[in-house]
Amino acid sequence: MQHQLWTRALFVVVLIGLYRWCSSMPGRGPEFAARTTAELKLPYMEFAGTLEQSAGDMREHRVIKLPNNLVVLCTRDPDATQAAATLHVDVGSLADPPELNGLAHFLEHMLFMGTEKYPDEGEYIAFIKKNGGQYNAFTSLDTTGYYFGVANSALEQTLDRFSRFFIDPLFAPGSVDRELHAVDSEHKGNLQDDYRREFQLERLLSNSSHPFSMFST
């Protein structure tokens, strides 16, 4: 019953991060206790300590760790009208190779272009819209984030589609040129943004041997 309360909650936010201390600091990180899911008996770990929570926060929170060491923050809010999830990958534009500036942003786009389980590149977006949701992604200097919001009843099915981005993306050759143009189009639109122009000036004045000085958009 407790498992069902969490998986069928009116609202669940899943914040997934690749926390390095989970794998690189064994025995020194937070304490997790072994658990199994109620229906499928799948193993996972749950944070056994006390989560710091403000007095005004009436939501319920859990922190779990999956067998692949991904740490997940689950939040239940009975007053919310949609379910949502976000995943942040610990790589951004600073990791672009010098000869391929903009690669991280390009790869962000390519993950939406179909997976082995859901090969139709429009299927994910169509499913989100069908269920009253929204989606987006962004590439920053040191992280790339993907997120969606969707009707509560569609959360499990959406997560299945969303997770395949990071398991078996197709990187279909037929999508490459179109997404290169999409990134270029975004960049051209950003040229009129004063904040981005100021940011680019900071790059030009920075150490030319540092990745911060390279192009990104």
End-to-end separation: 47 Å
**Rg calc:** 20 Å
Helix content: 25-40%
- In N-to-C order, the SSE pattern is HEHEEEEEHHEEHHH
Name the assembly state: single chain
- Adjacency order of strands in the biggest sheet: 2-3-4-5-1-6-8-7
What about the largest sheet?
8 strands, mixed
Descriptive tags:
about 220 residues, alpha+beta, eight-stranded mixed β-sheet, 7 helices, 8 strands, globular
Offer a concise description of the structure.
The protein is of the alpha+beta class.
Walk me through this protein's architecture.
Residues 1-28 have low confidence and may be disordered. This protein has 7 helices and 8 strands; from the N terminus they run αβαβββββααββααα. By secondary structure, the protein is an alpha+beta fold. The termini are far apart. Strands 2-3-4-5-1-6-8-7 form an 8-stranded mixed β-sheet, covered by helices on one side. The longest helix is centred in the last third of the chain and has 18 residues, at 173-190. The chain has helices at 2-7, 21-24, 103-110, 123-130, 155-164, 173-190, 194-205; strands spanning 12-17, 32-36, 43-47, 60-65, 71-76, 83-89, 134-139, 144-150. Helix 3 packs across helix 6 (173-190).
